[in-house]
Amino acid sequence: RYAGMAKIVLKVADEKALLKMNQLAKDEGLTTAMITDAGRTVVEPGTRTCCAVGPADEELLDGLFGELKLL
Q1: What are the contacts of 53-57 at 24+ separation with CB within 8 A?
Q2: CA 24, CA 16: separation in Å to the nearest integer?
Q3: Beta strands of 1-71 (E only): which ranges?
Q4: Which domains are present in the chain?
Q5: What is the average pLDDT score of the chain?
Q6: pTM
Q7: In terms of C-beta density within 10 A (0-12 exposed, 13-18 middle, 19 or more buried), how is residue 38 classed?
Q8: HSE toward the beta carbon, residue 61, CA cutoff 13 A
Q9: 34 CB neighbour count, 10 Å cutoff
Q10: Range 34-57 average pLDDT
C-alpha cells in the first residue's frame, strides 16, 4: 500500500496527442489529471502542458503508452 509507484515522463508531439492519450487512459477507467500552464514563461496561460495518469498496473500503462518516447 505504501510502497510507492514509479514516475516516468513521456513525450507527445502536440496538445492534440496529449488530449488523445489522456482520453485513452480515462476510457480504461484510470485516474487522470490535466495540468495547465500559468503562462508566466514561454507558453500562453491555460496551455495544457502535461497529464498525470495512475497509479495503474504496469502492463496496462505499457499497452496504452508503450509507443511513446521518454522525455
Answers
A1: 53/21, 53/22, 53/25, 54/5, 54/30, 55/5, 55/31, 56/25, 56/28, 56/30, 56/31
A2: 12
A3: 10-11, 32-36, 48-53, 69-70
A4: 10-70 (3.40.1490.10)
A5: 93
A6: 0.84
A7: exposed
A8: 16
A9: 12
A10: 94
**Nearest 10 degrees: CA dihedral of 13, 14, 15, 16?**
-80
CA distance 58 to 36: 26
Instruction: Return the residue matching grid coordinates 476510457.
Output: 27
pLDDT of residue 1: 62
DSSP state, residue 10: E
Q: What percent of the chain has pLDDT over 90?
A: 87
Chain position carrying cell 508566466: 40
